[in-house]
Design goal:
7 strands, 7-stranded mixed sheet, alpha/beta, globular
Length: 208
Amino acid sequence: MIKLAVFDFDSTLMDGETIDFFAEALGIGEEVSAITERAMNGELDFFESLQQRVGLLKGLEFSKVEKICHNLPYMKGAIETIAALKERGIKVVCFSGGFRSATAHAKDILGYDADFSNVLHEKDGKLTGLVGGDMMFDFSKGDMLQRLQGLFGITALETMAVGDGANDRSMFAHAGVRVAFCAKPILKKEANVIIDTKDLTQIITKVF
């Protein structure tokens, strides 16, 4: 019986990569998305790639960051799936290598219980190119998952993790149900549920 469900945000609960939307606003979309793609494929160290990408956003107005984060396209079935899990008494948490501006806003819309992500540093109304937070490293999601399991007294067998990229592997290592959602090959190898259609309600169909 699953008691805790942990979801990645970018390209899982949200249809796209938040940082790529920021980059498009600066006219450097292709440059940043290429780094994002390599990081999600496991070709780059996540920490280094995150710092590199955020560094390229230096000077972006924070008001634009907030506007973009308040208008992100959520994945089909996200609201319904989270509601169905919570009806079963399951705690639902979002882990994101992305940003609090996006996950905190989405929490009120999608209905998950808590979010853990990173914070873009801003000064005088603009991004400084610096970032810090809960999800900076390849191991961060797995580390935080173990902490939550310890806090709630929940085992790996009672945990479901859902993600799409290389930095989701660390949480898969501590979850009995491992859902690769429209995922990169590197993550599919470690999944026991694979969904290749952009519809999160398939989780309810395939897992429960």
